[in-house]
Design goal:
The complex is a heterodimer of chains A (about 250) and B (about 160). Chain A has one domain: Up-down Bundle (Ferritin), CATH 1.20.1260. Chain A is built from eleven helices and no strands. The radius of gyration of chain A is 18 Å and the shape is globular. Chain A has about 250 residues and is mainly alpha-helical. With about 160 residues, chain B is α/β, with parallel strands linked by helices. Chain B folds into two domains: about 80 residues, GMP Synthetase, Chain A, domain 3 (2-Layer Sandwich); about 55 residues, no CATH class. Chain B has a four-stranded mixed beta sheet with strand order 4-7-6-5. Chain B has a three-stranded mixed beta sheet with strand order 1-2-3, covered by helices on one side. In chain B, β1 and β2 form a beta hairpin. Classes of the chains: A mainly alpha (about 250), B alpha/beta (about 160).
Chain lengths: ~250, ~160
């Protein structure tokens, strides 16, 4: 496996892993019990997807096992986009972020169905079927709240405008991307971004929301292993048990 | 025959999250391959990529087989080539789900969409005046619906496609 592909799998896994953790923070705090369950279930799926991807790095690139890559890797090696590490904030922001992220995630796996790297193509089928429920969930609440009261519409718009530059950061290039494209592993972040915009534009309109300015400056850095001030404290909390007792089992 | 005996044992091993269904009903078993007169390999697949019960079920199957087939060497391997989907659930499995108060999944022929989750028949009263509350439930494989005929929430084993 070439370095570009390793980087591609790493960043995709890191996005799922970190976003899964953020989703899990809604457990017990959702605005109503069904949302509690939804975010907890999505967290489980995301962390499961990250696990499969880390395992792929272990099996095909000879890297450490999945648990090591997730819980013991230097935090300065993480390449997740800033979008997924931001604190949950209010429910409106979490929902909008979930919408923007999962629409991209679903399309990413749709493109991966044709990957020249067989393990990715194979896994993409399964992930897509599961992610379908994530996008369905996001769309249904976004449309209901966007079309709801003046207050809910205003809050959704504000959250959309705040999350959008970070969402554009999902498509930041990474080292070795040209290799990944040339070898047919993935058609590239720009291709995905175009498909994503095409997909989210009508849904945003249906939710009575205004599409943010597409020329806004994307917030990059995650793919270059740079992070916001929220990242380190979150990792510290996530690893509290594993760093206290590295041999803990359950 | 060894294969038949193994199948019979597997039919009585239940999913810890849906105790109404055996691993056979769920379609989790992809092959039972006798290696000789006294050795067998059982192939299984997880339902969800993140199913926390996979290794537990694998262990449970091995223990049960080993206990009931004392003189036979049994191995249980996880198949990575085959993806599980809800069409793999047997007719008997669907019947058992219904009896347990969980609406069985409809047959999936294309990508799952919202329409497929509307008007799901209520497993209690059979009414179709129902709506999807949320596409998630108490385990990864379930969704929560509400029946306006009997005024109660119910669970559905939600349809999952894999291509």
């Amino acid at each position: 496996m070439n370095q570009g592909t390793i980087n591609f799998i790493f960043k995709t896994a890191d996005d799922s892993f970190i976003f899964g953790h953020r989703n899990s923070e809604w457990t017990g705090l959702g605005p109503f019990i069904e949302e509690d369950i939804a975010f907890a279930s999505m967290a489980q799926d995301k962390i499961g997807h990250a696990w499969v991807l880390y395992k792929m790095l272990n099996e095909h690139a000879g890297l450490e096992d999945a648990e090591k890559l997730a819980f013991y890797r230097d935090i300065n090696d993480f390449r997740n986009a800033h979008l997924v590490e931001l604190p949950n904030g209010e429910y409106d922001f979490s929902l909008l972020r979930h919408f923007l992220f999962d629409e991209a995630e679903f399309l990413r796996y749709d493109l991966l169905l044709n990957s020249s790297f067989a393990p990715l193509a194979h896994m993409a089928k399964k992930f897509k079927g599961e992610l379908k429920y994530h996008t369905m969930h996001a769309e249904s609440f976004m449309i209901q709240l966007g079309q709801g009261s003046e207050e809910s519409n205003t809050r959704m718009q504000k959250a959309l405008d705040a999350a959008f530059p970070y969402a554009l950061g999902l498509f930041e290039s990474y080292e070795g991307e040209s290799e990944v494209i040339a070898e047919g592993v993935f058609p590239g972040e720009e291709v995905l971004k175009a498909k994503w915009l095409e997909r989210i534009t009508p849904i945003i309109a249906q939710a009575n929301l205004k599409m943010p300015d597409l020329n806004v400056k994307p917030i990059f850095g995650g793919r270059q292993k740079q992070h916001t001030e929220h990242f380190a404290p979150m990792m510290h909390e996530m690893r509290e048990v594993s760093s206290t007792d590295p041999n803990a089992t359950w | 025959m060894l294969e038949e005996r193994v199948k019979e044992i597997l039919s009585a091993i239940y999913d810890p999250e849906i105790p109404a269904l055996s691993v056979i009903d769920l379609g989790m078993i992809t092959a039972i391959v006798p290696q000789s007169e006294n050795a067998v390999v059982v192939h299984m697949i997880p339902t969800y990529a993140a199913c926390p019960a996979t290794s537990f079920i694998q262990k449970m199957i091995k223990e049960q087989l080993q206990e009931k087939l004392a003189d036979i060497h049994c191995e249980v391997v996880v198949d990575t080539d085959i993806h599980w989907n809800t069409n793999r659930i047997s007719e008997l499995g669907k019947q058992r789900l219904k009896e347990a108060g969980i609406a069985p999944p409809p047959k999936v022929t294309a990508e799952v969409d919202r329409e497929m989750l509307l008007g799901v028949p209520c497993p209690r009263c059979g009414g179709v005046n129902t709506f999807l509350q949320i596409p998630f439930g108490y385990t990864l494989c379930r969704a929560i619906h509400f029946c306006k005929d009997c005024n109660q929430a119910f669970e559905q084993f939600k349809p999952v496609a894999n291509d």
